[in-house]
C-alpha cells in the first residue's frame, strides 16, 4: 500500500511523508519545488519533481508506484498574495486539483485526504468555529480551497471517491531538524528570521477586542497535523466512514503577544516587540474546535507552545550557513 503526497517537499508535506514512514506505510512525494526543498524529502522516499498541472505525469506516477490514495497538499497557500494573483491561485489550487482528480480517476485511485484551510470560514461570527460554521471565504485562496472541497464532494457522487478534507489555521514547529518553515509570510518564521538577523519582531495591532489587545489564533504543531493526515488515510483505506470535513483546532487559541513571549523564552533572545498598525481585514479571534477530529482521526494537541517554539528555532538554526554562524 503506497500513498502519494503532493507538495511532499514542502514544510507540511515533508512532515506528512515522515509520518507515513513512521507508520510503515509506503509513500512517494511529488513536488514542483516552487516553494518546497528537495532536501526535505528523506532519501529513502521516491521523489518525483513535477507539477500537479501535468495530468499525464501524475497518472504515470500513480501507476509506477501502485498508489492507492493521495494526500493532496500542493497548492498556492498565501491568502494575502492571492488577492493580487487570483488567476495564479485558481490555476494552482482549482485547475491543479481537477488535474489530480482526473489522473486518479483514470488510474482507478479512489481515496483522497485533502489539505483544505480555515480560510474557507472568512471572519467567524462565533468565538469557536466548528465544522457546521458558515463558510464565507474572503480571499481567492480561501475560495479556491472551498472549491477544492466541492470538487471532492462532486467526484464522490460521480465515481465513489472516498475522501475527507482537513481545515486548519497556523501550523508551526518542527518534528525534525531536517525540516523547517521557510515561508516569508508565516508568523513563526518571520519572528525567527528577525531574531537571527538582529531585528526586533513586530506586532500588527494591539487594540483588538481580546484579553491582551492582540489577535488570537489557533497554533498547532506540524507533527500533530501530520499524524492526523495519516490517520485519515488509514481510515479511508479501511473503509471507515469519515466526515467530509474536519477542523484541526486547538479549541483555545493563543494571542500574538503570547507567541512573542514564548519566542523570547524558547530562543533565549530577550526582546520587546515593536507595535505597528493593524493589517486590514485581521479579525480579533479565530479559533476552531477539534472535537470531531479527535473522535475520528487521532487529532490532539501533543505539544505546548514552548515546545512549538523550541522545535521551530532548533530546526531553523540547523540550516544556517556554518560560516555565517561563526561570524
Automatic annotation (TrEMBL):
Keywords: Carbohydrate metabolism, Isomerase, NAD. Pathway: Carbohydrate metabolism; galactose metabolism. The keyword Isomerase applies. It catalyses: UDP-alpha-D-glucose = UDP-alpha-D-galactose. Residues 3-249 form the NAD-dependent epimerase/dehydratase domain. It comes from the Bacteria. Pfam families: Epimerase (PF01370). GO terms for molecular function: UDP-glucose 4-epimerase activity. SUPFAM superfamilies: NAD(P)-binding Rossmann-fold domains. Its EC number is 5.1.3.2. Its cofactor is NAD(+). It is an enzyme of class 5 (isomerase). InterPro entries: Epimerase_deHydtase (IPR001509), NAD(P)-bd_dom_sf (IPR036291), UDP_G4E (IPR005886). Belongs to the NAD(P)-dependent epimerase/dehydratase family. NCBIfam families: galE. This is UDP-glucose 4-epimerase.
